[in-house]
Design a protein that fits this description.
39% of the residues lie in helices and 16% in strands. It has 269 residues and is of the alpha+beta class. The strands form five sheets. Strands 4-9-8 form a three-stranded antiparallel beta sheet. Strands 6-5-7 form a three-stranded antiparallel beta sheet.
């Protein structure tokens, strides 16, 4: 028998973890910055335990060659890897308050909400047909919540098809979806601007002259690639071999949400 599925209230769990200082938003007394978090004693211990398990398996048991490479990466390296040109997400702006949203997440959020509303409307309609009074939703105090809206079958199926391949749309495709399906910022009801590309790397300058451009690494791969020849020599010119690395990476997320699931600074192995 399969284990019973746990029904966890995510917001309640996050509040518990915050109250116990498992983690907390960084720089909170100065209003903080979205996507940056500090780990308390318990969170730090758990994170280190995970790293230790990772290292025990991949480095000790699998004999991978562990390296620790620079976080600051020269622009030439990331230009060669394609990150400068292509490491980007599509963003759009709320035309009323200028809030920036990631375009694919916005489309996904709005269409998913419409499908949930459609499902609820169909359930209420089925209940009415059976002659039963619709059940009241417990704990709902927001009297301004919109009534459930039933979608045409073809529209609902189209929405599901879009959500199934949302990662495949480029900027033009997302823009067409936004216009065709009247995608708006759900928090304000305002329309949004056409999507534009936004590079996710944090740019910096190396040295006082400011002429040498660099980035905080978006992933740990580049340092390992740069040291391939050295690792091969270390391994007595024998192939195959595997390298491993664990360390901080940085991505300037457009609209970090979902707690620790999408952040701007994180540990990557």
């Amino acid at each position: 028998m399969s284990a019973p599925k746990l029904n966890i209230d995510r917001s309640a769990l996050e509040q518990l973890l915050l109250s116990r200082f498992f983690f907390a938003p960084s720089f909170g007394i100065y209003d903080g910055v979205k996507g940056l978090y500090d780990y308390g004693p318990t969170g730090t211990a758990l994170q280190q335990n995970i790293i230790n398990l990772w290292r025990q398996h991949f480095v000790v048991e699998e004999d991978m060659l562990e390296v620790d490479c620079s976080i600051i990466t020269p622009s030439k390296v990331l230009e060669t890897s394609g990150h400068v040109a292509k490491f980007a997400d599509w963003m759009c702006r709320d035309t009323g308050n200028n809030e920036v949203r990631r375009a694919d997440h916005l489309v996904e959020e709005v269409l998913a909400a419409r499908l949930v509303s459609d499902e609820l409307a169909r359930k209420l309609a089925a209940t009415s047909i059976d002659g039963q009074a619709p059940a009241k939703t417990a704990g709902k105090k927001n009297k301004k919540a919109p009534a459930p809206t039933k979608l045409e079958d073809a529209v609902a199926n189209e929405y599901r098809g879009i959500l199934a391949k949302i990662d495949n749309y480029d900027g033009d495709g997302l823009g067409e979806l936004i216009v065709k399906h009247d995608i708006r910022n759900p928090e304000t009801g305002n329309s949004v601007s056409p999507p534009v590309a936004f590079n996710l790397m944090f740019q910096t300058s190396i040295g006082p002259a400011g002429t040498s451009k660099g980035f905080l690494r978006p992933e740990t791969a580049q340092g390992q690639f740069m040291n391939f020849a050295r690792l091969l020599e270390f391994n007595n010119q024998k192939m195959p071999f595997a390298s491993a690395m664990v360390g901080r990476s940085f991505r300037n997320e457009i609209s970090p949400r979902s707690g620790l699931l999408r952040v701007r600074e994180f540990t990557m192995a």
